[in-house]
């Protein structure tokens, strides 16, 4: 080494233990000397470390002193074995030496030096290449980056376990666990940065990389957290609310936020035992499972047999008994209902023991999350065990399951298998619209178990559908006495039905409002309140409730369609279109979304756009929607004057109709077709064909209501005796207060026949029913009747007022504008008359009655050419009308008189 010192212009000052203190004439020579020494010694497997600084020194008695000597001595230990460390001053002297590569190891605090000094390591080409190949991880290890990061991750995991325990133990938001993980993981860059520059022993100052990097990491982490958790509820999953009940009393209750409910759709269990006597359990087991799970605050179970139209849809698709569905179809239904999970299973029997195999699937991922096998002699015990295993499979904590009240199904449902048998069969009869059989089976269930609360509630609703008011009231009273056996949602429904049966609509409304206040995130509660608002003719309030449902669950796409319907109902066409289009945007693969757009454009008279959307819908439609869409396309032909082609397409649709619902859709259109042509006898015959089909779709009560409110076919055909016979027949079947439905039929007939006093008496009875049940939306019928009465006695201004009131409720009934026009014509206000008739013509340019009214108006105002055009159109449409159809005969006589 000593000869090399002289070669590089250096001088050895002294030996210090196994080290040397040397001085060189330049920083460049000092660095190159140390690099040469390391190169020379590498073959001898000897390593040295060197520290180099530049500065003034003081010679005294053969030794050197000064800050430069002190700093160099403090830098040397910072170099790794075989390494060279230099100060920032030295680096500035050699920065132009391209073959000398340096890298900063940060600012270091050196003993005896006031300020931290930036230290650099000199890297040889070989060392640089070596570090590129391997030493990166060795460097991280030496700086303790991996050790510190590993400890941080371990501590993070332990913290997350603690948070997860607290979430489950204290019913906190499950989002908290994810939030903590996001926070801890997002700070890893900062942990790595700090450990890289400060992990080694010794004190070091903050570097520029850290000063910029740490705040930047925190800012990015905060932005990510805001983006991911925006709108997420991070508080407790329960909330305490104070509300006023239907009796005005304040109550306080702890309720669960809807966001944290787990929703499961329950399908039927298939009996694979070969013993058909056990078929009833295909429905009994899932019904009990749904009822049992309803006890848990964290769960919202739904059973397919409780969902309107599902059973008939499955039967029409070829799934006998609504069992044996393919997995893909069950997933589709679960997604349609916005469920998190769905379950189904098989039932077998061996040595008098039931064997129940159930599978629980994640609805979104179609992933099997639990396969449950149970065996035992007691079916009720099996359901209790099944419920617990379902809860565990959905991730409910064991502590919650243990601490939550979970009464045995035999204590809250029924403990009698003899009662379970007919109750299960009643579910099938209800789904098949066999209400008499449904009532018979429910009564059999009650005979076997007089404390069967759900059977009493079901029987009350069944009797209501059978128009047996006394039976309905008796059953609901029995259910009230056993209300403690019902899950909370059914308790609300029980009270709601009770108040409506007692004609206390204000209390029914107050009850549902309380339900919404108690459970502000419960979509069912908001939906029932919206329906209550709608029948009360409070459409703006109903619209707000449906918007709230979409705020709570934006994936409830069907409510976009409902909002479109309500806006259409009140004549807000622009808002209606917005919601129908949004429905189509979010559900582009659903035929129903385009069908709704087709219906909308049909209503507003844009037939070309209606046709485009119906064709899109037809392309996407399965057999369920094909017929109604074909009817929609045929309706466009009818309304644009292509009557013969429309008729052909109606018949084609009727030929492919697979269900009673499809048939009704076509027959209803044919009824309108015949009426439009003035063939009122055929229209009446078709109407009566429709009634036969409706018997299989509607409950007896709903069918009677339909018949009462649809007597026009008899009036149009001059069959008043048959209309009266219909009302008398229905009157004999209805008990008070439902018997006040009958006046709705009488007031229509008497208004059309000009018997004004009888019509007014009937109106009084109809208004009693409206007030009793709080269904102000039915006032549209009253306003229409009053308008007809006013018009018949020459009170045209009053008639206009009542027709306008009707139009406020039924904004899409465009025919009413032709009635208003007629009244203005009689008042000789021809300008207003023309405005009204043009509205009607805009939407229905080929309606013969509207064209006849337009002809009379224009002929009276001297616009003979225009009047003749409309008159000829009406006569052309009525060319094959019945010989005794008065409107057609008047139009033909008028046309003949002008020729």
Relevant terms:
single chain; 899 residues; Alpha-Beta Plaits; Rossmann fold; five-stranded mixed β-sheet; four-stranded mixed β-sheet
The number of distinct β-strands equals 15
Strand fraction: 5-15%
Q: Which geometry do the CA atoms define?
A: elongated
Strand line-up across the major sheet: 12-11-13-14-15
The Rg value, from CA coordinates, equals: 42 Å
The secondary-structure class comes to alpha+beta
Largest sheet: 5 strands, mixed
CATH architecture term of the domain at 240-413: 3-Layer(aba) Sandwich
| Top CATH class of the domain at 240-413 | Alpha Beta
Overall pLDDT confidence = 90
Distance between the termini: 134 Å
Helix content range: 55-70%
- The name of the CATH superfamily of the domain at 240-413 reads TolB, N-terminal domain
Summarize the model shown.
The chain has 899 residues and is an alpha+beta fold.
How are the secondary structure elements laid out?
Elements: H1 2-7, E1 10-16, E2 19-24, H2 27-41, E3 50-52, E4 58-60, E5 63-65, H3 67-75, E6 84-87, H4 88-94, E7 101-108, E8 117-123, H5 125-133, H6 135-142, H7 145-170, H8 175-186, H9 188-198, H10 208-229, E9 238-244, E10 250-256, E11 262-271, H11 281-293, E12 299-303, H12 310-316, H13 327-336, E13 341-350, E14 353-362, E15 367-376, H14 379-393, H15 398-403, H16 409-412, H17 417-431, H18 435-448, H19 453-465, H20 469-481, H21 488-501, H22 505-518, H23 523-535, H24 539-552, H25 558-569, H26 573-586, H27 591-603, H28 607-620, H29 623-639, H30 643-656, H31 660-676, H32 680-694, H33 700-709, H34 712-716, H35 720-733, H36 742-753, H37 756-773, H38 779-792, H39 796-809, H40 816-826, H41 830-843, H42 848-860, H43 864-877, H44 886-898
Parallel strand pairs: 3-6, 11-12, 11-13
Antiparallel strand pairs: 1-2, 4-5, 6-8, 7-8, 9-10, 13-14, 14-15
